[in-house]
């Protein structure tokens, strides 16, 4: 697969070398974007020989995919942490509280990682083709779906996963499309209205377990 490191580093020194290469790649993407990304410049910034770079990453695409995979792992960690915070709450959160605890940190992550946004735009479909990255993306959605149980406990699982996918996509797209604060605020308002509607609709649905009363 294109996203895989050619040689999986086992020694600490090799792992540090891979980290240095990925850090240099991330810095370069932030400065020049995907189109201006060059392996020779990554090697120069990392203080590595070309042969050392290609020893770990077979191609430019492999390095970019590995960088994106690392970012998705960081994103997953942020999602898990937020989900754990929601699980500690004594009462079900309001839609606004849900966004404060869960999606605001997610938006902060996306806003801080400009290279993540550039990779999503500059490599459309490429990161999705890598199975490990697709699995990471799916785990982020699953974690968000679990967190939605605290907000809408009566929502059936299939709809919860669908809602989680939509929330993640809207948050991601808002960051990618526009960075202006006023647009970000409107994006949050759209998400809050969607969650309010979701809670309201589920609350109005008749119980699946209860019978009718005469």
Describe this entry's structure for a reader.
The chain has helices at 12-32, 39-46, 50-56, 60-87, 95-112, 114-122, 126-129, 131-151, 157-177, 181-204. With 214 residues, it is mainly α. It has 2 domains: 9-58, Arc Repressor Mutant, subunit A (Orthogonal Bundle), CATH 1.10.10; 61-202, Tetracycline Repressor, domain 2 (Orthogonal Bundle), CATH 1.10.357. Helix 5 (95-112) packs across helix 9. The longest helix is centred in the middle third of the chain and has 28 residues, at 60-87. Residues 15-75 form the HTH tetR-type domain.
Summarize the model shown.
The protein has 214 residues and is mostly helical.
In total, how many beta strands?
0
Which architecture of the largest domain per CATH? Orthogonal Bundle
Shape: elongated
**What's the structural domain tally?**
2
What is the CATH topology classification name of the largest domain? Tetracycline Repressor, domain 2
SSE pattern: HHHHHHHHHH
Distance between the termini: 62 Å
Decide which structural class fits the backbone.
Answer: mainly alpha
Strand composition percent: under 5%
* Low confidence ranges: 208-214
Q: What oligomeric state do the depicted chains represent?
A: single chain
Q: How many helical stretches? A: 10
Indicate the radius of gyration in whole angstroms: 20 Å
Question: So what's the CATH class of the largest domain?
Answer: Mainly Alpha
Q: Could you report the average pLDDT, rounded to the nearest whole number?
A: 80
Helical percentage: over 70%
Major pleated sheet: none
DNA-binding region: 38-57
Domain HTH tetR-type: 15-75
Keywords: DNA-binding
Protein name: TetR/AcrR family transcriptional regulator
């Amino acid at each position: 697969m294109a996203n895989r490191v050619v040689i999986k580093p086992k020694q600490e020194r090799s792992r540090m070398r891979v980290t240095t290469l990925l850090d240099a790649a991330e810095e370069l993407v932030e400065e020049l974007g995907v189109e201006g990304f060059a392996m020779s410049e990554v090697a120069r910034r990392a203080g590595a020989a070309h042969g050392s770079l290609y020893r770990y990453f077979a191609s430019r695409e492999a390095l970019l995919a590995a960088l994106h995979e690392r970012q998705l792992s960081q994103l997953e960690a942020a999602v898990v942490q937020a989900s754990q915070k929601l699980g500690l709450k004594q009462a079900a959160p309001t839609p606004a509280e849900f966004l404060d605890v869960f999606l605001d940190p997610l938006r902060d992550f996306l806003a801080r990682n400009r290279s993540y946004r550039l990779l999503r735009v500059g490599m459309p479909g490429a990161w999705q083709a890598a199975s490990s990255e697709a699995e990471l993306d799916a785990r982020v959605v699953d974690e968000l779906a679990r967190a939605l149980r605290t907000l809408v406990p009566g929502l059936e699982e299939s709809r919860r996963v669908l809602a989680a996918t939509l929330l993640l996509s809207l948050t991601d797209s808002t960051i990618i499309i526009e960075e202006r604060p006023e647009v970000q605020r409107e994006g949050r308002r759209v998400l809050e209205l969607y969650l309010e509607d979701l809670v309201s609709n589920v609350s109005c649905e008749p119980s699946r377990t209860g019978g009718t009363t005469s």
